[in-house]
Amino acid sequence: MTGAGRSAVQAALAADPVLAAHYADFRAHAEAALDPALVALIRQAVAAVHGMGAAPDEAGLDAATRSALAYARRMTFEHTAITDAEAAAVAAHLGEPGFVAFSVLAALADAECRAALVGLAELAGE
Is 90 exceeded by the pLDDT of residue 78? Predict the structure, then answer.
C-alpha cells in the first residue's frame, strides 16, 4: 500500500466517527460470538506469526482448540492451502456460526497486525 493509501485509510477513520464506530462494533460482535479465552488465543497466535509476540502455550489445550489455532495461523500466509477437511474440523468444533465468527476474527487479527506493522493505529484496534 502506498503512503497515500495509508493516509487515506487513516483519514477516513479519523474523519468519520460513524465508520470507526461501525468497525469497532463489527469487531466486537465477532469477538462476542466466541469464548473470550479462544479470542485471546487466536489473536496471540496470529500476532506471533507476524513476529509481534510469543505464540500461545498450547500444552493444556484440547486437540480441537490446537487445530483451530493452527488454522488461524495458516490463514495469515497460507489461506489458499487450507483444506476442506481442516475447515470442517474447525466448523465441527465451533459450530457453523462459531466458525464464521472465528474466520472473521482471524482475518481481522491478521489485518490489524499488518496495520500495526505499517503504522495504521486506527485499523490496528489501538
Answer: no
Which amino acid does the sequence have at 4?
A
| Nearest C-alpha neighbor of 33 from the set 104, 93, 126 | 104
Examine the pLDDT at 5 and tell me if it is beyond 80: no
Rounded CA-CA distance 62/38 in Å is 12
Percent of the chain with pLDDT over 90: 56
Residue 18 identity (one-letter amino acid): V
Angle at CA of residue 94, ends 92 and 100, nearest 5°: 105
Backbone φ, ψ for residue 51 (5° rounding): 70, 30
Closest among 102, 98, 31 to 69, alpha carbons compared: 102
Cell 482475518 belongs to residue:
107
DSSP secondary structure letter of residue 123: G
Domain boundaries, the chain: 8-123
pTM: 0.82
